[in-house]
Every structure is written in structure tokens, then in C-alpha cells.
User: What shape does this take?
Amino acid sequence: MDQAVEALDVKVWRGNAKGGSYRSYEVPAQRSQTVLDVVTWIQQNAEPTLTYRFACRVGMCGSCAMMVNGEPRWTCRTHVKKVLEGRHLEIAPLRNLPVIKDLATDMTAFFDKWTGAEGVFHPTASRADAIAPISPEDPARVLANEAIECINCAVCYSACDTVTANPDYLGPAALNRAWTLQNDERDGAHSRRLRTISGGGGCFNCHSHQSCMTYCPNELNPTASIAGLKRLSAMSFFKGGRDR
Assistant: This one.
């Protein structure tokens, strides 16, 4: 932290689904201070009713995601010194999601789209069957592994301008999950999933702005996954579809 900054001027969005506004707080500046530290200080010392989410505090769960100076970030991993503008900091709930209260958003639509994209594994074997051996060098397995570390934090969903313009768009996280399953040979819903992700709110809405890749805290590339779905969908169309 710049030693010349003794206190931070922090604007925090306060309100609910019906509306709200920013309120200003003066927060002591400290070394190695994260944005989540700032929010916690405000809740503990200035505004006991401030509502927000967090869990692990070590960059694992993603539940502390908020808008910080207009950009979606995990607040526990965002150090103030990296985002401070002078002595000013603005914190808001994730965009593209309804607000429950203050900095906490309703994730229902996000997870509904996850299931809407058939982001659920459909097994082709029972637990009584032997586990199918899959080589980690298998090309499809490699593609799936590159996209599998999504933890549903919704940062990419909040960063996506297509979601903002088209609320029906399934979004990068749901489509990224669909891509991993399309590359899993054990899954039994490839054809059904392709029909779903090729529909009105599906992969062809993506304009490849790559905001999802830019802001993903786990450094995934949902844009590449969505491009893969576009290729699979086009191939399926010209081949007349598949039975699976």
C-alpha cells in the first residue's frame, strides 16, 4: 500500500432488488489489504447490516466475487494496491444477476442455465459395471481437462456483455461445462446436449469478446470451449445429427 494513503474512500452499493445507491465509507489503509478485508472492516466497524458472501478467504471457493471498480473479481484474492484509483475504491454486486441485498446476488438464473445447457453428466454405465479406462493422453480427455476447473463463481457470467444484452444466453460457464461433457466419452447425452446448446440462447450467441477468459480467476478459456461447441454443432448438422 502506498504509504501516502492513510485512509481509503470506499463506495459500497447498498440496497435490494427494488433499488439502492452507493454509500461512502472511510476505511483505514493497511499493508497486504484485500478488497474482502475492506468489506469485512466496513461490516464489523461501520455498517453491521452490510450483506455479502464469502467462505474460504483463500481463493478456492469463489463465493466472494463482486464488482471492484467496475470489474468482476474474487475479492479475497484482489489486493487493494492493485486496483486502487488514487484513494478511491468502488464495490458493487456482480452484474447480470439479480441483487438480493447489498453485495449478495441471486445465483438462481446462473445455475438454471447450467442445467439448461445439459451441464449434468448422463452415465452410460451403472455402478455395477467396471470403470471405463480412459487414457489421460486421449485428445478428447485433454480438451475436457483444459476446461474442467470451473468452480461456478459467476465471474465470467458477470463479465459477459452478451449476457447483458441477451438474458436468454446460457453464458460462458454453462457452455464451458457442456464442452467438457461433450468430450467425455462416458457421457450419454451428446446429441441432446448439442441440440440444447445450438438453440436460441446457445453457443452461436457468443461474439468471442473473450471477457470470460480475461477475468476467469482460474485462467480458463470459455471462449475456446464455446468455439469448440460451435464446431461440433456445425459438424453434427452437416452429418445429419447423431443418435447419442
User: Anything to note?
Assistant: Strands lie at 7-16, 19-28, 65-68, 71-74, 88-92, 99-101, 104-105. The mean pLDDT is 93. The CA atoms of residues 124 and 207 lie 34 Å apart.
